[in-house]
From TrEMBL:
Residues 1-23, 171-223 are annotated as: Disordered. One of its GO terms (molecular function) is RNA binding. It comes from Phoxinus phoxinus. Transmembrane segments: none annotated. Keywords: Nucleus. InterPro entries: Alba-like_dom_sf, Alba-like_NAB, DNA/RNA-bd_Alba-like. This is DNA/RNA-binding protein Alba-like domain-containing protein. Its main location: nucleus.
Length: 223
C-alpha cells in the first residue's frame, strides 16, 4: 500500500438493534473526538429533572417528571459508539446512571461496515483505486425510566452497579494491606531491602586486608 493514499472513509448506515423504539427518542452518537462534557450536557438536559422533588427522591416508576419550564422529560435515551469510541460511550452511560437514578438498561452489540477508498499516488502508473471494507464493532445502549424486558440478553436492572461496587469495596476491605500493595504492583522485596541496582560507591576489587592507595600518589615508595 506504499503506492496508495487514503482518499476518504464512508460509514455504511447500520440499523438500530432497537427497532420498536419511537422516532422521537434522542440518540447520542459518541465519536472518537467528542467531549464527554458536551455529550452529557445534551443527555442530561433531556433526562435529568431540573428541580428534583425532596418528597420522593428515589422514585423509580410513577408519574411523569418535568423540567422547570413545564416540558416533559424523555423517558428513554440511546447511546451509540463504534470502534474507538466504544469506551467513551460506556463512560457516558455510567455517568448517566449515577446522575439519573433507577434507569433500566439494554446493551446490544453490532457491527458497522466502514469502506475506505484508496487512490494511487501516481495515476499515470496504471494503478486502479481500491475499496477496502471493514466490519467495526459497536455498542448500542438503551436507558429507560420505564421497565424493560428482563428476559432479553444484555438487560441490566437499576442499581445493579451499586451492588457490584459494594461487593468490590467489601472484598478490598477484607484483604490485608500488604496483599493489596502486591496486587497493585507495589515495591518488591528486592528494592525494599536495598538489593536493587544503584549508583553507590564502587567496591575495591583487591585482596582482603589490602589497603587502597590514595589518589594523587604515585607508587614509588617515597614519602
Amino acid at each position: 500500500m506504499e503506492n496508495y493514499r487514503k482518499a476518504r472513509t464512508v460509514e455504511q448506515p447500520c440499523p438500530s438493534p432497537f427497532p420498536d423504539l419511537p422516532s422521537n427518542i434522542p440518540e447520542v452518537r459518541v465519536k472518537d473526538g467528542s467531549k464527554v462534557r458536551n455529550l452529557m450536557r445534551f443527555a442530561l438536559s433531556r433526562m435529568e429533572e431540573k428541580a428534583p422533588s425532596t418528597d420522593h427522591p428515589d422514585t423509580c416508576e410513577g408519574s411523569e417528571v418535568s423540567v422547570g419550564s413545564g416540558e416533559n422529560l424523555c423517558r428513554q435515551i440511546v447511546f451509540t459508539g463504534v470502534g474507538q469510541s466504544v469506551a467513551k460511550a460506556i463512560t457516558c452511560v455510567e455517568i448517566m446512571k449515577r446522575r439519573v437514578r433507577c434507569l433500566h438498561q439494554h446493551t446490544k452489540l453490532a457491527y458497522r461496515t466502514v469502506q475506505e477508498v484508496w487512490e494511487p499516488l501516481e495515476p499515470e502508473a496504471g494503478l486502479d483505486s481500491l475499496t477496502v471494507s471493514r466490519n467495526v464493532p459497536g455498542v448500542w445502549v438503551l436507558l429507560s425510566r420505564d421497565p424493560l424486558d428482563r428476559n432479553q440478553p444484555g438487560y441490566q436492572a437499576p442499581g445493579s452497579f451499586d451492588a457490584f461496587w459494594a461487593q468490590a469495596l467489601k472484598e478490598e476491605a477484607a484483604t490485608p494491606r500488604h496483599e493489596q500493595k502486591r496486587k497493585r504492583g507495589g515495591t518488591g522485596a528486592g528494592r525494599a531491602d536495598g538489593g536493587g541496582r544503584g549508583k553507590g560507591p564502587r567496591k575495591h576489587s583487591g585482596r582482603p586486608g589490602e589497603s587502597r592507595k590514595p589518589l594523587g600518589h604515585a607508587g614509588g615508595g617515597q614519602e
